[in-house]
UniProtKB/TrEMBL annotation:
The lineage of its organism: Bacteria, Pseudomonadati, Pseudomonadota, Alphaproteobacteria, Hyphomicrobiales. This is SDR family oxidoreductase. PANTHER family: BIFUNCTIONAL POLYMYXIN RESISTANCE PROTEIN ARNA. Signal peptide: none annotated. Residues 10-233 form the NAD-dependent epimerase/dehydratase domain. Pfam families: Epimerase (PF01370). It comes from the Bacteria. It comes from Tardiphaga alba. CDD domains: UDP_G4E_3_SDR_e (cd05240).
Length: 322
C-alpha cells in the first residue's frame, strides 16, 4: 500500500546523537504521533524512553528502505551525519552524501510527506569574499579542499534536485552555525578550552552561535507545522575568538595564517593531528549567518544570542574547573 495518507508519526535518523536524543525527549509527549528512533548505535533497554520505538540501522544500508516501509512515517527528521572534521574522507562521503541519498530514496518509496534535514553553514564554504552576513539566497560553494564543506554542498545540491523532481516530498532544510550546549565537546570547543587560545592575525574570526536548545526547538516546530523552506539557524550576534577567550578567562595569541598552515602541515606529517594546512580557512573565513528568514518566514526566534549561548556553555559545562 503506497497511499501517503496512511503514513503517520515521525522517524528520526541519528536519534542517539547529541541533538537527536534531545529532540526525542521533546517529541515523546508532543502529540505528533508515533516516534521512531533510528541510529547506528543500539540503545540499551534501560536507556530507552517509554512510548518510542527503537530501530538499529545504518543510513548507508539498502535495508533502510525496509525499515521505512515498515514504519511508514509521515515525517522524517534526518540528523545522521558526520560532525567531526578531519576523519576518513571516504567514510565521511558515504555517510553524508550516499547516506542522505539512501534516506531520500527510502522516503520516496515509503510515501513520506515531509523531510527535515540539518545541513550546515559550512555548505556556503569558507571564503574570503563571503557576504557578511550570508543569506539563504547566497550561493553554496563549499570548499573542494575541505571535505566536510564539500560534502555539505553536494548534499544540498542533491536536495535541490529532489525538490524539483519530487515535489510531493516537502523539505525543510536548516543550516546551523556552530551549535553549542553545556555538553558539547568537539573540535570547535577544543579551540575554546586550550590553556592559550590561538587565533589568526588579520581576522576577527567571528563565530555565529546557536544553542542546542534552540536547534531542538526549531526542529520540533518544523515537525509540528510541516512548514517547508530553507533557513539559516543562528542566534543573534557573533563573538570573535578573542572575545571568547576573554569570556573564558584564557589568554589569546594571534598567529599569522602562513605560520599556522606551516605548523599544521608539519604536525599532520608527523601524525600528531588529522587537520591539514587547508583547514586554516575554517578559522580564517568563518561564515556569519543571517537569521532574518528563520524569524520572519519560519516563525522561530532563537531564545539565546551568541554571547548568552557561550556563557551558558561556559557556566553549565560539568567537566570544566570552577
Amino acid at each position: 500500500m503506497n497511499d501517503a495518507t496512511f503514513n503517520s508519526g515521525v522517524l528520526i535518523t541519528g536519534a542517539a546523537g547529541f541533538i537527536g536524543s534531545a529532540l526525542l525527549r521533546v517529541l515523546a509527549d508532543d502529540g505528533v504521533g508515533q516516534v521512531t528512533a533510528l541510529d547506528l548505535r543500539d540503545v540499551p533497554p534501560a536507556q530507552q524512553r517509554a512510548g518510542i520505538d527503537y530501530e538499529q540501522g545504518d543510513i548507508r544500508d539498502p535495508a533502510l528502505k525496509e525499515i521505512f516501509a515498515r514504519v511508514r512515517p509521515r515525517t522524517v527528521v534526518h540528523l545522521a551525519s558526520v560532525v567531526a572534521v578531519g576523519g576518513d574522507e571516504r567514510r565521511d562521503y558515504e555517510i553524508d552524501v550516499l547516506g542522505t541519498r539512501n534516506v531520500l530514496e527510502s522516503c520516496l518509496a515509503a510515501g513520506v510527506q515531509h523531510l527535515i534535514v540539518t545541513s550546515s553553514g559550512a555548505a556556503y564554504g569558507y571564503h574570503a569574499d563571503n557576504p557578511v552576513p550570508l543569506r539563504e539566497t547566497d550561493p553554496l560553494r563549499g570548499n573542494e579542499d575541505f571535505p566536510y564543506a564539500r560534502n555539505k554542498r553536494e548534499v544540498e545540491d542533491m536536495l535541490a534536485r529532489w525538490r524539483s523532481e519530487h515535489p510531493q516530498l516537502q523539505q525543510t532544510i536548516f543550516r546551523p552555525c556552530t551549535v553549542l550546549g553545556p555538553t558539547t565537546n568537539n573540535q570547535i570547543t577544543a579551540l575554546f578550552e586550550r590553556p592559550v587560545v590561538t587565533g589568526l592575525s588579520g581576522t576577527a574570526t567571528p563565530f555565529s552561535l546557536i544553542a542546542d536548545s534552540d536547534v531542538v526547538a526549531a526542529l520540533a516546530q518544523a515537525v509540528r507545522t510541516g512548514k517547508p523552506g530553507i533557513y539559516n539557524l543562528a542566534g543573534d550576534g557573533t563573538l570573535s575568538l578573542r572575545e571568547i577567550a576573554q569570556l573564558n578567562g584564557k589568554p589569546f595569541i594571534p598567529i599569522p595564517p602562513a605560520i599556522m598552515r606551516g605548523a599544521l602541515r608539519l604536525l599532520n606529517a608527523l601524525g600528531l593531528t588529522k587537520l591539514t594546512a587547508e583547514n586554516v580557512k575554517f578559522i580564517q573565513y568563518r561564515p556569519v549567518l543571517d537569521n532574518t528568514r528563520l524569524k520572519s518566514e519560519f516563525g522561530y526566534t532563537p531564545e539565546l544570542d551568541a554571547r548568552v549561548v557561550f556563557e551558558r556553555y561556559r557556566d553549565q559545562r560539568p567537566d570544566l574547573p570552577a
